[in-house]
Design goal:
This protein has a 20-stranded antiparallel β-sheet, sandwiched between helices. The termini are far apart. The longest helix has 29 residues. It has about 575 residues and is α+β, with helices and mostly antiparallel strands. The N terminus is likely disordered.
């Protein structure tokens, strides 16, 4: 072989290898599930065009579920991978429960990168709550192979038509709608499966299950290609109308678009909620607030951005660049802590927002009920009102069955008068007020004498007088510290000496993904506090059941507010997972 021919062959071979390597790198970089750390293939749900702008709730997963499972496998240890696969399989079976469908056989061959579920109407049938509610649901699943998804629908309805005579079809504005007509029933019901909103297991009025395929070949590029499922053909007709009349669908909702502009991180899921606001005599036509949530993937868990759209136009920058110093009095083993500034303003905003929903309002009241009962005070009026600087509120483990609380607040001009008022309240309840020294600090305790009875070995009854601490307080530097027990006060003072929650590595890991400029933190160590919140919030057990895979892996939850832009309040949530 001539030297020139050899070099020509060598150069051609090198170029071929480079091209093959570049192509392989491109394939790996686009197909690897690690790309999901930067977000899914799309940032907004295309199916929003099917949903009315007045719809109460929309939730979208913006990634193919198989890619999500592949990402879980990447981070799982070899021992965990089989369990992770089994968990995903269980989720798929639960979502398709009682439908007769199999994910691998019926859905996987055509499913695309979007699954959108919308609660279209709380009572779509007749909007008469006196005879029960029939909640309207619309499920839109994108198709990457329009022919395969159409074959799936044809096969499904052929099987159904052989089983029963209630299967019907119609052509509505060029779209074929198939549905099962429900039998006539006297009363509606709103019983829902926790996993499958389109299936009502014990309903006296079975849903009129309906489907439609919209869009052409997936190769067409910009055309929508979706399979729609609903519990009434009327909902599918509404969805088609929403596409045709752009001013009707969610894509053209001003609140929806405002919220999306503030959600800047990569995401694999998006949620949007229209929050009804109670009308008042001064303002009978109140426009609803809206909440949008974008969920992304972090190597340690899930990172969510939220945007609450209000009717105001306020703009406020975050007030903090590091955790507040009041956290130095929170022990490192605290499973729950809230730390920020200006508690008076925060509580006013929280109470105003909670008043729009009776259940939320009850939940907020229940959260402080134990402290109020133990101390015999009205927390908002007697304590929160004077806290305008730093504060930290935390739950700490206790030797008794009831957890202790610690509250540390920066002193203000009103704090001395407020403490005098607390002493007056203690005296009015016939508590004793005494002082003692603990860790070289003067401590004041509100105590109550109680009697206890016991029996000796000869079964003789003995009575004893005991002192029960109703509240404990101390002034340390520029902070006022309140606790529910002497043990908790000792823990607070010890934390400042030997290491507080801020020095806890789990806490630092939980706040690391959050923006450093913020308004403070809400921190929850889930395994350590799970029993506490299940006792306080009975509904929590039902929520855990419906989202069991998440709660089984949840290690901690951290929330921070990141300011307000033109009436849009922003926050970031990090769910650290095992």
């Amino acid at each position: 072989m001539k030297l020139r021919s050899f070099f020509s062959f060598l150069i051609a071979g090198v170029l071929a290898l480079l091209a093959l390597g570049a192509g392989g790198f491109y394939w790996l970089s686009t197909k690897t599930p690690l790309n999901l750390l930067a977000g899914g293939p799309t940032t907004t749900p295309a199916a929003a065009v099917f949903v009315s702008k007045q719809a109460p709730v929309l939730v979208s997963m913006l990634v193919n579920p198989d890619r999500l499972e592949a990402l879980r496998q990447v981070f799982a240890t070899p021992e965990e991978r089989s369990l992770a696969h089994a968990e995903f399989e269980q989720i798929k079976k639960s979502l398709l429960a009682n439908t007769g469908l199999d994910y691998s056989r019926d859905i996987q061959p055509w499913i695309g990168d979007e699954i959108t579920l919308a609660l279209t109407n709380p009572d779509f049938d007749d909007r008469d709550r006196s005879n029960g509610q029939q909640t309207g649901f619309l499920l839109a699943v994108s198709s990457q192979n329009a022919d395969r998804s159409q074959q799936f629908l044809d096969s499904y309805w052929q099987k159904q038509s052989r089983k029963e005579k209630t299967v019907q079809s119609e052509l509505y504005k060029g779209v074929k709608i198939n549905y099962k007509k429900p039998p006539i029933a006297k009363k509606k019901t709103s019983q829902l499966s926790p996993f499958n909103p389109l299936y009502l297991p014990n309903s006296s009025l079975p849903p009129s299950f309906a489907t439609a395929a919209i869009g052409g070949s997936s190769d067409s590029g910009n055309n929508l290609s979706f399979v729609l499922f609903a519990n009434s053909p009327n909902l599918l007709r509404d969805a088609i109308n929403n596409v045709e009349s752009a001013n009707l669908n969610l894509n053209n909702s001003p609140n929806y678009q405002k919220a999306l502009q503030q959600l800047t991180q990569g995401r694999i899921a998006l949620g949007f909620v229209n929050l009804p606001q109670p009308a008042t005599e001064q303002n009978p036509q109140v426009s609803p607030n809206s909440l949008a949530v974008a969920v992304g993937v972090n190597r340690r868990g899930l990172l969510a951005q939220t945007a609450l759209v209000t009717s105001g136009e306020n703009t406020a920058s975050p007030t903090l660049s590091e955790p507040v110093k009041a956290l130095q009095y929170i022990p490192s083993d605290s499973p729950f802590a809230v730390a920020s500034t200006d508690l008076r303003n925060f509580w006013g905003d929280l109470s105003s927002a909670a008043s729009a929903n009776a259940e939320v309002s009850k939940l907020v009241d229940r959260a402080i009920a134990d402290i109020q009962q133990n101390w015999g005070v009205n927390l908002p009026q007697d304590i929160f009102n004077w806290v305008q600087g730093e504060y930290a509120l935390a739950v700490v483990p206790s030797s008794s069955n009831t957890p202790d609380w610690i509250f540390a607040a920066e002193k203000s001009a009103d704090s001395l008068d407020a403490i005098d008022k607390l002493d007056e309240i203690a005296r009015s309840k016939e508590y004793s007020i005494g002082s003692f020294t603990l860790r070289n600090q003067k401590i004041t305790a509100w105590t109550q004498l109680t009697t206890s009875q016991s029996y000796d070995k000869k079964n003789n009854r003995k009575s004893a007088i005991e002192t029960e601490a109703k509240g404990v307080r101390a002034t340390v530097g520029k902070y006022e510290i309140f606790t529910t027990s002497v043990e908790a006060m000792d823990g607070a003072l010890k934390a400042a000496e030997t290491g507080s929650l801020v020095a806890n590595q789990d806490f630092q890991t939980s706040i690391e993904p959050l923006p450093p400029a913020n308004d403070g933190y809400l921190y929850l160590d889930w395994p350590s506090s799970r029993a506490i919140w299940e006792k306080q919030i009975p509904l929590l057990r039902l929520i855990e059941l419906s989202a069991r895979p998440l709660f089984d892996h949840l290690r901690s939850l951290t929330v921070t507010s990141t300011g307000e832009v033109a009436g849009i309040r922003k926050a970031t949530v990090f769910m650290r997972l095992n």
